[in-house]
Amino acid sequence: MKVRQELFHGSTMFQDQLEIYVNRFQENFHSDFHSHDFIEITYVAEGTGFHHIGEHVFPVRKGDLFILPLGTTHVFRPVSPSKHQKLIVYNCIFTESMLYKANEDAAGINLLQCFQFPTDMNASRCHFDGPNQRIESLFQQMLDEHTVRKPGYAALLYSLLLQLLIYLARQFSEPDQAKLHPQDSMEHILQYIRNHVDEPLTIRSMAEQCRMSERHFFRLFKQRTGQPFQDFVQHTRVQASCELLLRTNLTIAPIAEAVGYKDLQSFHQVFKRIVGMTPGQYRKQGL
């Protein structure tokens, strides 16, 4: 099944010759993949869900931030179509020329290091936890300036973008500090779970991979994801099944087995609890 994809153009969003656009957007479960001809920095403000970037799928929650260059194919989706499952993000988009201008103005720090991406993914991601509200405050200030447009708003909006880029560049230039964050130490486990949804996944086996006690692993995992281990695994399996339901012609039974459920009844129960409808209803609604 071919994945539908849109191309977004910055020229339809930029105004007053200012190559910066900011919004706060509630994501839709049925949104199509898209790419764009501008740079995008997006910050999860409320809720939980998934961010699909190419072939990668990342569970997201408040505090997650992604840097997406030109041409990245991606889409955010809440956990389920239910109106009670919201996923709200701030989006700040700007042109490459604006990035290079900011890099010239930011003496003493290389802003372009934020755009040195992993070899297997055309994006960067990080998480801002707890009392650190600077990132969200910057996004809200940018949104206010962009929306109200008081005299001098363009200069102030640019200065706020510059602050954001400098702050992010500082984070990316301190890899040793970043390693101290529990969420980073869990990254390979999260990717392992996403890539092995068809296999048995237990706290014991994951803790052994990290060379941790089960208790310590459980605490760090919940701190990183905001969910107990078993809840995260179930949500990841259901999300994988949603993709198969919409993008393949497989019947329900092989889909359930492909995401780790040997018992079809258990799969139906978990799917309905998380998504709010049966797999068959979900497939019909998505067609």
UniProtKB/TrEMBL annotation:
The keyword DNA-binding applies. One of its GO terms (molecular function) is DNA-binding transcription factor activity. Residues 187-285 form the HTH araC/xylS-type domain. Keywords: DNA-binding, Transcription, Transcription regulation. SMART domains: HTH_ARAC (SM00342). PANTHER family: ARAC-FAMILY TRANSCRIPTIONAL REGULATOR, HTH-TYPE TRANSCRIPTIONAL ACTIVATOR RHAS. This is HTH araC/xylS-type domain-containing protein. It comes from Paenibacillus selenitireducens.
